[in-house]
Amino acid sequence: EEAVAINTLPAAFTNAPVFIGGPIGSSLEMLHRVPRVRNCTKIAAGIYYGGDINHAASLIESGEAKIDDFRLMYRFAGWYPGQLDEEIAQGYWKVSRTSPGLIFDKLPSHLVTPLVRPDIWGSLMSLLGGEASRIAQKEIAGLTDRPMVNLWLSALSNPNPEAAACVIAAAAREGEVEDEVDDVEDFEGRDACRGLDEVARDVERKLEDMAREIMFAIASMGSPGGSRPGVEERLAAINAILFNRFQMGLPNVERTAEAMGASYTIYRPDHYRIDKALDSMQADPFLLSILYMALARRVGVDVTPVYITQLPTKILLRAESENGAIYYIDTARNGTTFERETVLRDLEAGVRSVAEREQAARTPTSAAAAGWLPSPAANGGRPTGPLRLPGVDGEGGVAPLGRVLGQMLMALANACVIRGEPREGVRWKRVARALQEAVDIIEVKDLGL
After folding, report:
1. Which of 39, 120, 426, 443 is most buried, judging by how many CB atoms fall within 10 Å of its CB?
2. How far is CA 142 from the centre of its chain?
3. Could you read off the pLDDT of 265-282 as tens digits, one per residue?
4. What is the bridge-based pairing of β-strands 262-266 and 70-76?
């Protein structure tokens, strides 16, 4: 309930800097040090989250608060209950004390973009000393792989969704060569450039062959009254050719990993590569969705991804018919479609269950701060179901595809680590970091910030 649509900001926040808060959602989140803001939640001494932004604006206008008392974050990062504790225990995070001064004084009051950013993380890691300081120095030295960022910028500007998947395939090809002659950590985006055109041509040819068969299937269907086949008929043709004729589907599970009481599926690295997937006809859920999107676009259907953490495969595709009907497509189930009400009902049940478990394990205030429940002062403290479901009702820009690619890259990185190839995992995380930077650059530009 604290989330704010970016195009509905009160005038008092017109000149406020906007920071990139994470990879999830498409709204603004607000941190501040003004306890008087109505319905805000205290998350640490002198640090508050959310609340009524219009009330906050009135405090600025009356002189009772300053614009520098607030930090607006575009999107957010989130974890399942217990996930962050588990990641800290595994050494993925270092814990440091914080203060209002760090957030509201150290972060600059001018616009921060991916190209002009304060090194708050590096400063904090250095203050922790020891191994943390050495990690910071190494990471800062190689923070931006500019050639890889440029590759992503070009691919994300391409209307064909497979263009971005080809970047991953090209990086994998060159990484195999690099691994034979050098340290994989020295791999950079310029290496992927060498094989990208070849990968793209190969993928284009195979997709065009499949699309041609789908068009033949559409033409043979016909429609009542001889009208042009609609979205429903076109989706049926895609399903028939992709899943029945070519037998495309999820791969056999190589292994599973247990974490936080849940089981995670691990696929072979080849199953995240579009060039290999079009040969084996097996792809992980994210890549399978990208392939479906690519074919749908070729036969005149606009399909966008919806990333939903509550789903086992994490992703649905969204399509709208000529009469405004919305279809949600589960490519992991051979293109099965669902109505919006069914999707929301199932998701709300899942999120409500998680929220109630979180409420049982935390105080209401700490649960609200974690983002799973509204603050106790709002809505009677009751769980509200899915607070944020990016894309369920449509989402523009590069964020939806970027989110899918990012999840695919992290799954690939984790698969490499679990397979005993940690250097490969590090390399793919660097590729994912470059992707996120490219998405940030495009979105900041599109928002005119």
Report:
1. 443
2. 23
3. 778 889 999 999 999 999
4. unpaired
Contact 237, 248 (CB under 8 A): no
- C-beta separation of 436 from 406 below 8 A: yes
The pLDDT score that the predictor gives to residue 348 is 64
Say whether pTM exceeds 0.70.
Answer: no
Residue type, position 209, single letter: D
Copy the structure tokens of residue 163.
């263009």
Its sign, for the CA torsion 31, 37, 41, 43, is positive
Contact 307, 407 (CB under 8 A): yes
What's the Rg (C-alpha) of the chain?
A: 23
* Residue found by looking up tokens 């690939």 in the block: 412
Where are the extended beta strands (E) located within 237-361? 255-259, 262-266, 303-307, 315-320, 326-330, 336-338
Q: How far apart are CA 308 and CA 441, in angstroms?
A: 24
Neighbouring-strand partners of residue 335: none
Using CA atoms, how far apart are residues 91 and 422, in angstroms rounded to an integer?
15
The letter for the amino acid at 338 is: F
